[in-house]
Amino acid sequence: MTTILQRGVTHGRFGFPALIILALLASVSSWQEGLRAEDWQKSLSKEPGAFKRFRTTKVHYEFGWSGLTAADADVSFRQNADGNCSLDLSAKTTGLVRALWKMDAHGTSVCKAATLRPVKLTQTEVYKKKTVVTTVDFTAEGPTQLKVTNPAEPAPPQAKTFKFTPMHDMFSALLFIRSRPLMQGESVKLCVYPSSAAYLAVATVVGREKLKVANKTWDTIKCDLKLNEVQSSLVLKPHAKFKKAYVWISDDSDRLLLKIEAEVFVGSVWAELQNVEFPGKK
User: Fold this and answer.
1) Three-state secondary structure string covering 83-136
2) pLDDT tens digits, one per residue of 24-79
């Protein structure tokens, strides 16, 4: 069962960063089933908020299923002199899960600091018998993806474009959400392309509460997350394998992603901050 969970979360349609994608896109409902394409497009959040800038940060997360730790990830993000923001991630399965199913993932995402719109993401997923390299370029037409598998698949890979804009990747979506005021009841609605499919993601603030993670008690912003798949026709399609998810963000100037809990078709999955560093902090 654990192997099934990890395959569903860290491989296939969810892509890079495989484990962080779970953080944002872990909940699905049919709340907008049947909504016309032009209606949901008009509801998208257009502009980022005041929390656009952030410190250079390094974080370590653990991920698991029920009470079992299954994977971890090291993530660093920074603002560059060229006007872009960058995220670098390394993730791997651990413990018993790694003995059953070995996976190592590495990736980079770049977005524009002024608009929090994505530029390019790359990811490499290494499994026991194959390596999958995915690149996505975000253009004015929409995200263009190329996926290469080694050993090579019988047919040569072809780039595919999802013709819709504005589109986010996972890094820019997380930055966009954290930038908003996030007052009680506020909803942030974004179209997100993790690596191979498009989703309408909605984060709604449902409260503020205390949370203890990484040996510290934090003031947090609690958000409910929902997701619908966006088909090529731009019609929304609910995903029955996911039920609900909550995310806790630190209620301070850093607005760190602290914890995620999600109910999926195989049970409860979670992610939790273990450590955070601010390089260069005096």
Assistant:
1) CEEEEEEEEEECHHHHHHCCEEEEEEEEEECCCCCEEEEEEEEEECCCEEEEEE
2) 333 333 334 445 566 789 899 999 999 988 999 999 999 988 778 999 999 999 99
